[in-house]
Amino acid sequence: MLVANKPKAKKKQKQKDRKNLFARVEAMFRMQRLFDEGVPVRYFPFGIFLMLILLTYIGNNHYAERMQRKIQKLESEVEDLRADYTTLKADYMFSSKQSEVARKVQPMGLIESQQPPIKLILKDDED
User: CA 48 to CA 56: how far, in whole Å?
Assistant: First the structure.
């Protein structure tokens, strides 16, 4: 019967240790003295000031993280658009070559001239 009581004694000891932890923290900070005469009103402005600073800090962090996500999204979009632009530019440059233009207009019955262009010179009548 003594063996069965030992585990219960250990549980009670653990519960006492937990209570002692909070009792130790309370004794360390001695917060009870502050509230002996009521709520210390003189600390309210400072507490409100600290809460406003804390809320501003938290809001600023959320804003910065949101902006960072937007920046990363826009950077990836710009990279995709740059790749599309390069591809389209290369296709345009290839399709505007003289040999490609001649090949595309051949079904319409147009042929490439084999003679160089002729330079026309006009004389002004300033006599």
Answer: 12
